[in-house]
Specification:
homodimer; disordered N terminus; PLP-dependent aminotransferase family protein (chains A, B); PyrdxlP-dep_Trfase_small (chains A, B); PyrdxlP-dep_Trfase (chains A, B)
């Protein structure tokens, strides 16, 4: 089929460089991208990707569900649908959210093309260029990419092992407002944070909500991993205790499968109306077939049983990673201990730079995401995100061993020659699927 | 499942009204929306919707294809994928476009969530607030909604039965530039125009391209209906004769089915790179399952045979509509004669207002889209779009008879009382699926 394809790339010059929107100027693929194309080779252990391991899904159940969907309901499932999303699925989404204490009405749910699109639509509705979004430090690379695309200014707020630090949040709000800037919302991932691997403690949840309410600040609660905790019941969502001040984002990408691209937002009524209009402008409607496929899966299958299987699988991988880190990492290396989700956040010994080290790591057949990807301001160079979601426990153990060897070599070089190549400055790490 | 749902809509006041982005201020659902919810009742003949009639699709073939996709390739089909889109599908898209004379490389294709999202991403990449987009008069309501969402200024250019008038295009470019404004692109639907129902003549295609090249103006060629012509071979795309100056948009929504939400853009290399980054920011990746489902359908089925069946079905409906219009409409009513696609553009006798008349038409159990929806500037009140794609020929005949009766009543009233209620001013007609 590809025979005689023309070479349409006569030139690599960009004739349009002077015509792009201001928001487009900063859209360049980072050097990390090129490395990741190397990192996808099978001999490299990738601790970089955020792809869920969906190998355990019941393919026979899903296969029958989608076949029946076409044969029995094809005229609906393959047609345009509601811009807000399928009513039955929105009802089921409310059932899913009830597990986290959320009491929502299907009318306040908007289905989106993955929760990534929910971040995009909320930002589209709220943010003018120059508006401030408060984020955790670090924060999800895909959300930072959206805020950048809408020309927002991101202000990071410190986290510790219990999640965002309330005093730091309060101070950031005051400082930004004292500077005369408008803050549009506080973007937070309270559970099994991407990339930090920590969760907001129960005690802090009330304080964070109280601070945001007192300061009249909207909360954007992004919760793709909430049902993937390794211990006990799902934590209570922020939205469960504040229906007017919180926009909640959910996703089926980690509890079922990402390839259907179905996420959602729950918002106060007036905001929900705006989100639907924004969705119609962006796509007319989210994919109907995807929505009905997920709806059918939820109805036909013990989907919570499947989520429990996922949890056990990820718990085993988390255990493998933490054990290997404890065994292999040199002193003065620290890391978070996640009790759910996909990620460990590792801080290198003083003087090491995760971005500068990445090419050497890939050469040693292990990959990670440098911490700078998760900051809008060039910070994070001493840190990295390690994912345990996709490789097997054996590969994780091997990957951590390779990484520890690279770090040890760096430390030896540093002891011999002093600090080496600093990070190449901050560039934009576009939130491709491999960084999700 | 809906038992004991809380009433979350304690208030209809919008607490956030002062916090939205400037672009959001104009996002309000039009009054037409409310009427259309009435118009969807079965007793109303809707000549308003742009939904394709997909009743003829081979459900057994598609059902088997999606089942096999899950069972044999589930780990890929349900996973995250490339932000640019599946390589095999992009290769097949190049084959589809070859039918219109386009010689493109799969590397220059970006898959989108319907071609609606392609319009959104192109506008995102190119348009700052205040930038001008030149559109035909009338133009597609969904594209106008996007341009509005990005705060563009739309300048309309006259069309006639041969499509956009080249002299009017050239004059508009000169006038806008003389006013010191930046034009980002010329948005055009050359084939079976939505809503105008006309096509750009072969002779004019070269002239339009020559004008745009001479004026260094990018063309955004939107072509969802190109393969749905009733006579002869598909027309040659503008992109076929200019690979550097044209961004081409295509869709499977009308040749296969819209519920998968798969469209695409073909762009010069540098622009394509920006579109992929914008896509990753918007959704991480377009729906993988949808893409592979369509790829499998194209491989397994005589999809062009299916398109030919669609053409014959739509031709029959077009014939029914034109015959009924000729038979029933009062003098001084005029309309276009489409030779493909879904739409007829009808102009009422002087003094009648299609928007003001719509409630009376719906009461008489027929619906249409008032012409004002297809202009950014309040024009079009004397016109309406009539769709023949979805109702049966019998229903079309009945609907046109009802509409003619309403128009005749309006004419009688006008002769008795003089001009009646003018249009209620221009409001924004959000591009919901029913207007697509």
């Amino acid at each position: 089929m590809s025979a005689d394809l023309p070479d349409v790339r006569q030139t690599r010059l960009d004739n349009y460089v002077d015509r792009y929107a201001a928001r487009t100027k900063g859209m360049t693929a980072s050097e990390i991208r090129a490395l990741f194309s190397v990192a996808s080779r099978p001999e490299v252990v990738s601790l970089a990707g955020g792809m869920p391991n969906i190998g355990g899904l019941p393919l026979d159940v899903v296969g029958s569900a989608v076949r029946d969907l076409v044969v029995d309901h094809g005229a609906t499932a393959m047609q345009y649908g509601s811009g807000q999303g399928d009513p039955t699925l929105r009802d089921q989404i409310c059932d899913v959210m009830r597990l986290e204490g959320i009491d929502a009405h299907p009318d306040d749910v908007v289905v989106t093309v993955g929760s990534q699109q929910a971040v995009d639509l909320v930002t589209r509705v709220f943010c003018d260029p120059g508006d401030v979004v408060i984020c955790e430090a670090p924060s999800y690379v895909g959300a930072l990419g959206v805020f950048r695309a809408y020309q927002c200014e991101v202000v990071h707020v410190a986290m510790d092992d219990d999640g965002v630090v309330p005093e730091a949040l309060e101070q950031a709000i005051a400082t930004v407002r004292a500077a005369g800037k408008r803050i549009k919302f506080f973007y937070t991932i309270p559970n099994f944070h991407n990339p930090a691997g920590v969760s907001l403690s129960s005690e802090r949840r009330g304080r964070v909500l109280e601070i945001c309410q007192r300061n009249d600040l909207l909360v954007l609660e992004d919760n793709p991993y909430g049902l993937l905790g390794f211990d006990g019941e799902p934590r209570r969502a922020l939205r469960a205790d504040d229906r007017e001040g919180v926009i909640y984002l959910g996703s089926f990408s980690k509890t079922f499968a990402p390839g259907f691209r179905v996420g959602w937002a729950v918002a106060p009524h007036a905001v929900r109306e705006k989100l639907v209009l924004a969705q119609e402008s962006a796509t007319l409607c989210p994919p109907v077939f995807s929505q009905l496929a997920i709806s059918s899966y939820l109805t036909r299958h013990d989907w919570m049983g499947q989520v429990k299987q996922f949890r056990e699988m990820y718990r085993e991988r988390r255990d493998a990673m933490l054990a290997a880190l404890t065994e292999k990492m040199p002193a003065a290396t620290t890391w978070t201990k996640p009790d759910g989700g996909f990620y460990v956040w590792l801080t290198l010994p003083d003087g090491l730079d995760a971005k500068a080290m990445l090419p050497r790591a890939v050469t040693a057949r292990v990959a990670y995401v440098p911490g700078t990807a998760f900051f809008s301001d060039g910070f994070g160079s001493q840190c990295m995100r390690l994912s345990y979601c996709h490789p097997t426990p054996e590969r994780i153990t091997e990957g951590v061993a390779r990484l520890a060897a690279v770090i040890n070599e760096e430390l030896e070089l540093r002891q011999t020659f002093g600090p080496l190549t600093p990070g190449a400055g901050h560039d934009y790490d576009a939130p491709g699927p491999e960084l999700s």
